[in-house]
Each structure stands twice: as structure tokens, then as C-alpha cells.
Fold this protein.
Amino acid sequence: MEHNGFTSGQQNVKLQLTALSFLQYFVWGAWLITVGKYCTLTMNWSFTEFGAIFTTMGISSVFMPSLMGIVADKWMHAERLLGLLHALSGITIASLPFVKDPHVFFWVTLVAMIFYMPTIALSNSVSYSVLGQYQLDPVKTFPPIRVFGTLGFIAAMWVTDLTGNSASANQFYISAISALTLATFAFFLPKCPPNKGDNKGKSLVQMLGLDAFKLMLNYKMLLFFLFSLMLGCALQLTNMYGDTYLSTFESFPRYADAFAVKHSTVIMSISQVSETLFILAIPFFLRRFGIKQVMLMS
């Protein structure tokens, strides 16, 4: 049977991937924006100690996505690896409320991020693999699915804030429960077996994806990379200190009862709403300017 041009199997798999995208970012959104309030306001740690904690995402992102990509390519089904990593990250995040020392908190968070950060790329890989298996065009089908990732991030921020847990340790339990739920769900996704033959004859540099730096020889790609780097720096600063900064106005009687102070995390979600709108606009730009022209830029 067909519905809106899709078979029942295609509809089911789109719903599965939508749920995957939603939960993938719900796990992260439950604590990423609010952990600053927990560290500085609840635990009374310094901004230096908190800033060190926030570096764990960057450190783990340098090597873990590539290493887990090799594992998924050569030895393990991608959806099973995704589930395993989420289970390990969920267990680790659930242990954070028991940590009272900022230095220990740094190392536990680093372990959690070592497990979590590669799942972002893995969830995308699983989605593209499954869409290909069901003869669905990723360019048209994936952006609406990915939008639900940002909606999941927003939903997590709102849940954490509106339940009064934006400065409490419960934010980590919310994240851990959703991570373990996603871990279970991932094992029931369509199979994404390793492509063992794809890495034959490739050097370690190629398997790690380091040869992609050759793209920097194209000045358009270099400019794109530099602007993305600056944008990423601004984004991280906002994520780190934005919520905490708005919360500090609580000490001023004039602003203490303001919505932006009482529900600063909800206010911070405006940036994710903007992201959602731009993701939805991607197919329009691809059609307007031509997919081939966009691909030639890279």
C-alpha cells in the first residue's frame, strides 16, 4: 500500500528515523545548556573549573567519531554500536550527580562524551543507510527527519526548565533515562551491517578521514571552514554561559520575576528554533541553486 507516495514500509522507517533523531538530541539537550547553572550556581564551582568541563566535547570529538566509524565499517553493525554507545553514555551521565569534585566531574564527563559524541555521526550514518535500503532520496527525506533532532533538543530544554531542574542534578537523570531508552530502541532499527570491503587498500589516514583536509586547497571550502569555526566558537560560548548569565539577573529585584530570568532555558531555545527554520529551508536552496552547484563548492 502507498500513502502520500510512500509504501507502508517506507512510512514506518521514516517514523523510526524521526524518533531516532528526536531522542539523539533530547539526550544532549537535557543537560548541555543547563550544566553551567548546575556547576556555578548549585555546586559553586568557578567559571574556570566549569570551562574545563565544557572542553570534554571538543576533546572527544577529535578522535572518537573516526575510531567508531572504523568499527562500524569493519566489525559491527552501526545500529548496534549506536545502541551500545548510548547505553554506556547514559550509565556514565547517571553517575554525575554523585560527583562533588570539579576535577573528578571533568573526567567523568569526558568518559560520557567519549561515548556520546560519536553517536551524532553514527545516527546520521544509520539514517542514510536505512533510507538507501528503502529507496528513499536522502536529500529530500533526511532534512525533515533531522528537524526532529532540533525539536528533541528544544523539548529536552523545556522539560528540564519547566520541571524546575535546570539547576539541579535531575537534569542528568533525564538525559540518562532518554539515553537508555534510545539504546534499547536502536537495537530494533533496520540492520546496517559493516561494509568490510570498503576499506581494502586504504591507508590509516584515509580510514580516519584525514585526507579530507585536501578539500582546504579549494578556497571556497577553506572560507566555509573558517566561518564555520568562528560560528562554532560563538555557539559554544552561548551554550556555556548564556543560561547562567540570564539566571544571574535573579539577584536584581527589578528583574527577579521576569520570564527570561525564571525560565532562562526556554529563552535560550530560541536559537534552536532558528536552527529548525533554516534546516527546513535546505531543500528549497538545493532546488533553487541546483544540487550539483552546491556539491561543486565542496
Notes: Confidence is low (pLDDT under 50) at residues 292-298. The first strand starts at residue 2 and ends at 3. The beta strands are 2-3, 6-7.
